[in-house]
Design a protein that fits this description.
single chain; about 425 residues; alpha/beta; Aldehyde Oxidoreductase, domain 3; five-stranded mixed beta sheet; three-stranded antiparallel beta sheet; about 10% strand
């Protein structure tokens, strides 16, 4: 995606954006009510007395302050639970839950509207028509808050629980795994042939590569009449000694061209699931790994994670076989390797679940499913991980009976 699209997506996922927008809308309605007051007749049948309206707005303001405080406290507690029981890296995904954001938005917006309307009606004269518009805004806010509160009661009962966290992480991962561009070559040409020579562009900061604006790189390559090969995919940790791109058959680049190329790469301190599918598998693996620790001893969560990983890999296999249209002819990007995907998904679970027969057997069954999907590279990767998991199980399992069963399941993988 372009840099602008990426930044807008990050902005929409922030907790403060929706409350700010709706708060500004509430202020705008109070201003509209004041501006329209002189155009509305003072002989209307509905007359909201100023004192009554002040009392209603005061009740709304005090109530929403309490509810908003309670909601924020519940969210902080839930996020802390996610960090403790699942993995700290999953907290950001849970924070992006739309239901939670919408509920918080309604509470804060109602509070802001009540405060602004109270101040406005206290310092100026609105007239009968203006008060009616303020009352209409009050009725809308109360209705919105009631609906949001009912939904919030149901949502807060699940927020922070392991099942809900896994659901949120799977939902976030599925978007990336369903995209041929994100899982493929980002809309560019696939890398082919031997390594190329040319001018390299290095990053000027240390951090994770979060997004690449392939369209900007394509435009630059078209201007200078060459091909740009991207050396790193989103998720890579780079430093000023690494090359972000190689400009093919170009000995040197002008400083402004180098700056434009660097600007196409969004750097940050953390990885992002939306543009980095491997990070999603790592998150799931971390959740399973913590569940397998002696302090938690919850193999059921690890088994649930394996089910999610299989569904994601099947989604990737179904979409990667679709026609991945090349939008940017002047840029080359290497596709994701199934070996890397399965390394991220199964390495930690196979290692720390090797002593548990129920986990080891589910790993072999999961890899058997992946081997039968029909993707040759994925099949080979599944068979390699099956052998690795078998070796670890034979070293860790206590009984020969369980070892024989694991061997039999591994043979089914191929």
């Amino acid at each position: 995606m372009t840099k602008t699209e990426y930044l807008l997506r990050e902005l929409r996922s922030s907790l403060w954006v929706k409350p700010t927008i709706m708060g500004l809308a509430a202020v705008a309605w109070v201003s509209i009510a004041y501006g329209c007051a002189e155009y509305l007749s003072d002989t209307m049948k509905i007359n909201i007395e100023r004192e009554i309206l002040i009392n209603l707005l005061g009740i709304l303001a005090s109530t929403m302050l309490t509810v908003a405080t309670f909601s924020v406290a519940a969210m902080v507690s839930a996020f802390s639970a996610v960090s403790t029981t699942a993995t700290p890296r999953a907290t950001r995904i849970v924070m992006q839950d739309r239901s939670t954001q919408n509920s918080l938005t309604s509470f804060l917006s109602a509070f802001i509207y009540a405060i602004v309307a109270l101040v406005a009606i206290s310092i100026t004269t609105y007239g009968q028509g203006g008060r009616l518009l303020l009352f209409a805004g009050y009725c809308f806010m109360v209705g919105w808050v009631l609906i949001s509160f009912v939904r919030w009661v149901d949502r807060v009962s699940k927020l922070g629980r392991m099942g809900d966290t896994l659901e949120r992480v799977e939902e976030a991962c599925r978007e990336a795994f369903s995209s041929p561009e994100a899982m493929g070559t980002l809309g560019a040409k696939p890398v082919s042939g031997d390594p190329v020579s040319g001018a390299g562009v290095k990053p000027d900061v240390i951090g994770y590569l979060q997004n690449i604006d392939i369209s900007a790189l394509d435009a630059i390559a078209g201007e200078i009449g060459t091909t740009i090969r991207v050396m790193e995919r989103p998720g890579a940790f780079v430093d000023p000694h690494d090359s972000l791109v190689t400009v093919v058959d170009c000995d040197a680049l002008e400083d402004d061209i180098e700056d434009r190329i660097r600007a196409a790469f969004q750097m940050g301190d953390e990885r992002r699931v939306g543009s980095d599918p491997r990070f999603g598998l790592i998150l799931l693996s971390e959740i399973a790994d913590r569940a397998l620790s002696p302090a938690v001893n919850d193999p059921g969560t690890a088994i649930a994670v394996l089910g999610i990983q299989i569904r994601l890999m099947e989604t990737w296999s179904n979409h990667i076989n679709e026609t991945n249209e090349i939008e940017f002819e002047n840029v080359e990007v290497a596709a994701l390797d199934p070996e890397d995907l399965l390394d991220d998904a199964f390495t930690a679970i196979s290692r720390d679940g090797a002593a548990m027969f129920e986990v080891g057997s589910r790993i072999q069954k999961s890899l058997a499913v992946l081997a039968r999907i029909g993707n040759e590279r994925l099949t080979n990767a599944a068979r390699r991980h099956s052998k690795l998991a078998l070796e670890q199980a034979e070293l860790s399992l206590k009984t020969e009976t369980h070892k024989k069963l694991i061997r039999k399941l591994s043979e089914a993988v191929g």
